[in-house]
Amino acid sequence: MTGVHHGLGLLLVLLPTVSASSTGTVVRINRAALSYVSDVGKVPLQRALKVIVPPLLDWRGEMLQPTRIQILDVRVPHLDLKFIAGFGLRLMATANFTIKVFCIPEPLELVLPMTLTADAHVARGPIRTPVVSISTCSPLFSLASVLNGSNSTSPLLLVLVQKHIKAVLSNKVCLCISNLVQDLNIRLGTLIGLSPVGPESQIRYSVVSEPIITDDYIALDVNAILFLLGQPIVLPLHSASFVLPWPVGTEGVMATVGLSQQLFDCVLLLLQKAGALNLDVTGELNSDDNPLNTSALGRLIPEVARQFPNPMPLVLKVHLGATPVITFHTHNATLRLQPFVEVLATSSNSDFQSLFSLEVAVNLSLQLSVSKVKLRGVTSVLGDIRLMVAASNVGFIDVEQVHTLVGTLFQKPLLDHLNALLGMGIALPSVVNLYYTNSEVFVYEGYVVISSGLFYQR
């Protein structure tokens, strides 16, 4: 009984991705997903419907004798799903049961056609995950046909066999569907699990309202909570809810995910508080690629040359005290960093001596992409890096002179570090073995939209 949630469940496990809360995220599962779910769900549904039929007890002479019955095969040639506005989903399927009856004088094989209709209600559960429940289930059986042209079975026995099989399947089919939906709800419950974001930090999603269900899609509001060392990161409350326009993104895709700027603000705040955006850039002596040493700096600042007659390596300690600022305009995402850079030199006794510190402003272009279940980013510098001296222990500093040395050597390590961090990705709501595929990312004023296909990997 582990099959149907791979089909019907594939649609529903994606629902938790949406929100009008402080970190608004909105996901819509569109009608295009239903045909894929129907195709994927046929084989698991066939396995689920292959239930055990108890023997038929009938009178032979003066004794009650059992006749063994076995379902040899189940084929589901048709499976269709559609949305029920304001309620959930309707499943419609046809199935053919191949059944063997071990009767005397010879076994009998039958094909029993069935039409199944089931309505599933989708709601928000008590632990803030989607909960699915079967409200109606109606199997309808047609007359069975005898295979192999066998006609030695008595008409009365054939009638009794069909009546027995239909009575058993009428109960077992719906019970099986209900059990599978319960298995699905257990799987849906894993959506509130923690996913790593970076060192000592995690993200967790939860459904914050009842689903919105129309003839075209199912959507849920989901809140993303980020944790640092087990404690939630709290943003100032936003008065405006995040509303995702309809339609938006690519027409005809299976899933549309809307991510508000509030979510990105929270992620960047988390990374900044965790210190994940900080880095050290270390110089090496006798390196043409990295001339971060007192000799190179001394040619620009005489006091450095005086204090360090022998070349010593420099270290740039980059610290982001201010939270990065992300801005979304149509077709354009930018990231503004304002790191504090302290320039230190290694002295002869291996201690660090602070030479001067800089306040830096750098604007970055941000490109977003989706890989399986993660949203990833890559940045590049926009324009020039601006430097301003914050403090100096080596006298007057001409910013224009040190700009090339410090700015150039600072830029590549910063980008490498930031892109490595953003390349790890932020987990989107999902469950095991379910992935976003062929995804496109669109940037709009104040939010991001992911238009994606779905893929379930067995």
Automatic annotation (TrEMBL):
Stretches assigned to the Lipid-binding serum glycoprotein C-terminal domain: 249-452
UniProt keyword annotations, A-Z: Signal
The keyword Signal is assigned to this record: yes
GO molecular function: lipid binding
Secretion signal, residue range per the UniProt entry: 1-20
InterPro entries, A to Z: Bactericidal_perm-incr_a/b_dom, BPI_fold-BPI/LBP, Lipid-bd_serum_glycop_C, Lipid-bd_serum_glycop_N
Family: Belongs to the BPI/LBP/Plunc superfamily. BPI/LBP family.
Protein name, as recorded: BPI fold-containing family B member 2
Natural source organism: Octodon degus
Gene transcribed to yield this protein: Bpifb2
